[in-house]
């Protein structure tokens, strides 16, 4: 893996650097400057994807920080035959794991839970000390966004979580399904007055449970709703070097916005042709 943006400041070449280095060779990059192509440690990836501090001005007046992590093919497909895994790769999965390990809660739509076969997040020994120092539990909670609560509460996601799975819905959700969720030991949070969730209220609802570092893994409909509501703070997009064709969704599928919202580029990493980009809202 190597960092394409931002680049480190150039350093003076070593005294014994060969004067006949091949044309185009990097004469200044050292093994630890991020530019050299090598496997990054989990600590380095965690530092590269750290959440903004609570007192960072970029988080002013926001109850939490909602980032999204999605993968896309070169032609814009968010999945292949209904699943994102065919677009992924080893480096993408490492970053996927790091982003989960940094989060308080993973916010995901009910359809994605069903299609991808979601299971509880697991504790990772490599991040245990970091999470404890940040006041986090051993693993992120999974927070499922759903209007109808059409979920199988006998699945491991709800019966075997290390950290209790949450369900986010609206106050007008079917009462029998709310009772079924609670009977199964699931905590139900209301983030809307109608049947479904109001995307702009999700961060505050989860912040009330102490979850301020939020990660959304989609799907495209939920992510589109977050973006259209101005609730998305950061986009971590993995661009896979594959072409999927077909009629797969884009990474976002939501209501149109009056004016496209501009995000600023934070970083770009590359490995094996994959580009790992990170953007923040202005």
From TrEMBL:
InterPro entries: DHFR-like_dom_sf, RibDG_C, Riboflavin_Biosynth_HTPR. The keyword Coiled coil does not apply. Residues 1-36 are annotated as: Disordered. SUPFAM superfamilies: Dihydrofolate reductase-like (SSF53597). Residues 24-36 have a biased composition (Basic and acidic residues). Pathway: Cofactor biosynthesis; riboflavin biosynthesis. The keyword NAD does not apply. Residues 65-258 form the Bacterial bifunctional deaminase-reductase C-terminal domain. Keywords: NADP, Oxidoreductase. It comes from the Bacteria. This is Pyrimidine reductase family protein.
